[in-house]
Design brief:
The chain is α+β, with helices and mostly antiparallel strands. The chain folds into 3 domains: 107 residues, SHC Adaptor Protein (2-Layer Sandwich), CATH 3.30.505.10; 97 residues, 2-Layer Sandwich (Phosphorylase Kinase, domain 1); 170 residues, Orthogonal Bundle (Transferase(Phosphotransferase), domain 1), CATH 1.10.510.10. It is built from 12 helices and 17 strands. Strands 5-4-3-2-1-6 form a 6-stranded mixed β-sheet, covered by helices on one side. A hairpin with a 2-residue loop joins β13 and β14. The longest helix has 19 residues. The radius of gyration is 25 Å and the shape is elongated. Its EC number is 2.7.10.2. It catalyses: L-tyrosyl-[protein] + ATP = O-phospho-L-tyrosyl-[protein] + ADP + H(+). This is Tyrosine-protein kinase. GO terms for molecular function: ATP binding; non-membrane spanning protein tyrosine kinase activity.
């Protein structure tokens, strides 16, 4: 049995195009757009409770302006090997969905299923991701090197994969992981690490990004202490372009540092978006730990982040680049750093550095945030000082996004071909 949406009880629910796995409510709100559009997902973790499958449906009839009410979530219950929501019971979730699509029978009250939402281009399949070797540990679990095979054309690319095992994470950590993926998928810039997508249909969750050939920027600088001053000027300009792009969204990175940038193919790429927030200002919890050596005066005092506190951190990172990746404020303890910065101390820059660049960095770590230049102004100044022609980043962004959509869109036809001949099987956990 199948419908025009491509559902079939002959394949596991995980293989259905409208199954979105661990997609959280925040993402569901962003992808369901029209009345009757729906998807199936797994419930968010609650301590001591088993997970359930959830049917999420867009329903704004009659129309109202309260967006929080537009998505209806129905728990799919299971009893004696049958699944149901309220009324009829079926052998599988796919048959439940087929019934409501074909008969136009309401799920509840006046909520109808009209159109299944297939997985998006950034929702990847685990079977297309191969883990090759561990690179290290991240905030959520292992970070590995691997390969991603695109759904269309069979092209394979080398990637970095962040893994998250849900059994090891709290509900807030899972939200953080998916939140980082949500922020990254809006980016497309040669100096921001490329995001390929997230695999969330089963555990462990994978966040898949481009693999930078030379790894973290601070490590690269330490291993290559003989880089020319011109190469370092190029690096701070590339980082400025990346951060200027983020600020144009606008988002605040909130953790700019050489350790949070990558270097590959001759390009600095801003990475690590775990602390990133939308907007131009953010009041952080003063009790949470923060990387003091990169913090602006107002952040040390009040934990008040802004685009201009990113500018300060960028100035500190520029110092790191010119000093081969060593930790800022060498020889000082953290408490001493905070005290000195608050009383006006700033680190020395190399004597051989262009005076105009020195002046620009000095303005970027000015005590008064209103005296700091924007990242767009910094990029423009560095282009002028270094005589560098600005690339057409708008065209590059369009091309990056087009490539990913073309290579990774999930169509009914391609999915049906992939699942042809799959054995009949009850949905996992049913």
């Amino acid at each position: 049995m199948s419908t025009s949406q491509g559902s079939s009880h002959l394949v596991p629910i995980e293989k259905s195009t409208y199954y979105h796995g661990f997609l959280p409510r925040e993402d569901v709100k962003m992808v369901l757009k029209t009345n009757g559009e729906f998807l199936i997902r797994i419930s968010e973790p609650r301590k001591g409770e088993p997970r359930s499958h959830i049917l999420s449906v867009f329903h704004n009839q009659p129309p109202n302006i309260d967006e929080e009410t537009w998505i209806k979530h129905f728990v799919i219950k299971c009893n004696e090997n049958k699944v149901f929501i309220e009324k009829n019971a079926f052998p599988s979730i796919q048959e439940l969905v087929d019934h409501h699509l074909k008969t136009k029978d309401s799920v509840k009250d006046d909520v109808f299923l009209i159109k299944a939402l297939p997985r998006q281009s950034w929702e990847l399949d685990h079977e297309n991701i191969e883990i090759i070797k561990k690179l290290g540990e991240g905030a959520f679990g292992e970070v590995s090197m691997g390969k991603l095979k695109f759904r269309k054309g069979g092209k394979t690319v080398n990637v970095a994969i962040k893994q998250a095992k849900l059994s090891n994470l709290t509900k807030d950590q899972i939200k953080e992981f998916m939140g980082e993926a949500r922020i990254m998928r809006q980016f497309g810039h040669p100096h921001v690490v490329r995001f390929y997508g997230v695999a969330a249909t089963t555990e462990p969750l994978y966040m898949v990004m481009e693999l930078a050939t030379n790894g973290a920027l601070d490590s690269y600088l330490k291993k290559n202490p003989d880089l020319s001053i011109e190469k370092k000027n190029e690096m701070i300009l590339q980082a400025a372009w990346g951060l200027e792009y983020l600020h144009s969204k606008p988002v605040m990175h909130r953790d700019i540092a050489a350790r949070n940038c990558l270097y590959g193919d001759g390009r600095v790429k801003i990475s690590d978006f775990g602390l990133t927030r939308h907007g131009i200002a953010y009041q952080a919890d003063p009790h949470k730990k923060a990387p003091i050596r990169w913090l602006a005066v107002e952040v040390i005092r009040q934990r008040l982040f802004s685009l201009k506190s990113d500018v300060w951190a960028y100035a500190i990172m520029s110092w790191e680049i010119y000093n081969n990746g060593i930790e800022p404020y060498p020889g000082m303890m953290v408490a001493e750093v905070a005290q000195k910065v608050l009383t006006g101390y700033r680190m020395e820059l190399p004597a051989e550095l262009n005076q105009e660049i020195k002046n620009l960095i000095a303005r970027a770590w000015a005590e008064n945030e209103n005296e700091r230049p924007s990242m767009a102004e910094i990029a423009m100044e560095l282009q002028r000082i270094t005589g560098t022609v600005r690339p057409d980043f708008v065209a590059m962004e369009a091309q990056i996004k087009k490539e990913l959509i073309m290579a990774n869109n999930l169509t009914h036809k391609s999915h049906a071909r992939k699942n042809k001949g799959a054995k009949a099987k009850m949905p996992k956990g049913m």
